[in-house]
């Protein structure tokens, strides 16, 4: 290679690197934060569904799709790497089996016990096979659906399901049980609606790339569990925007790591730490007060907000709007800089139609603020 050719190659490489740096600088980096089971990963699934028409990372032929979610650190374990339809089917069945085990373990604690001999017999059979089923989630026995239906016909089981918040039953458990015949079918291929119900804990930091209204987004989802939140810090320094997700329906659910407080108390404390962190002064900040569907159900059943939040002074009928206003005010009071703009939205993350409207507004705000920051407005 001549000196002239070498200079040309070097110049081409420099140009490509410069273009790549420019693309990276123009990319909007969106960070999803929230405590465990807040619904932040479901919000990310919705973004993939709305903008790419799918949630899975691989198509039926195994091809990696453009919107695939991958682990930042290269980890390819289930939950950290690529998820195809079969993998999601396994997750949904595991969620179903876990829910059954929790319900069966709490029938005597949160109800009067089985009211029929058939349900008691079905429960005994299920407890004997749930362990092995977890090792082979893709091949459930054909009589499993009949056992589940027998169990669900017992009033005490329904009472136990209704008290699920007391023993950490998944919010999606009633729907999973209702759809058990479909989920346990040998030919089951999860729909997007099913995948939105799936609970797969975020085991590492993942990155999803999407193009929204012509703008490139890198979206980061992090582990919200206790002991894992120190991994959030490096992302504070370079993110363009943050969406903090808090499940306000968890106002009555004890925190597993500290049962003296609720999951919502924990979420409030984490929010206070995040929003007041010095590195959070610049990014656009959005707060999703999530799981309003579950909140409404709890209020309709008469579960008292005041029992865990004594300073609640709303009406005895606990009107939905006033409860939402109360929780929004609790979060607003945690913000030390009263001039800090935080965009608050009430969300139902598993409802595509509801979250689509909210996300459109939020994405528009983030894009506008990003353009203003770059002096392009």
Q: Can you offer a commentary on this structure?
A:
This protein is α/β, with parallel strands linked by helices. The chain folds into two domains: 29-82 and 202-371, Rossmann fold, CATH 3.40.50.300; 86-196, GI Alpha 1, domain 2-like, CATH 1.10.400.10. 47% of the residues lie in helices and 13% in strands. It is built from 14 helices and nine strands. It has helices at 3-26, 40-52, 85-110, 117-135, 144-152, 155-162, 173-178, 180-183, 192-197, 233-236, 263-275, 292-300, 320-333, 352-373; strands at 28-34, 69-71, 206-212, 215-221, 241-247, 254-255, 258-262, 284-290, 342-346. The strands form two sheets. Strands 2-3-4-1-5-8-9 form a seven-stranded mixed sheet, with helices on both faces. A two-stranded antiparallel sheet has the order 6-7. Strand 6 (254-255) and strand 7 (258-262) form a beta hairpin. Helix 3 (85-110) packs across helix 6 (155-162) and helix 4 packs across helix 5 (144-152). The chain is globular and about 85 Å long. It starts with a helix and ends with a helix. The model is unreliable at 74-80 (pLDDT under 50). Keywords: GTP-binding, Magnesium, Metal-binding, Nucleotide-binding, Transducer. This is Guanine nucleotide binding protein, alpha subunit. GTP binds at residues 37-42, 171-172, 196-202, 290-293, 349. Mg(2+) binds at residues 41, 202. InterPro entries: Gprotein_alpha_su, GproteinA_insert, P-loop_NTPase.
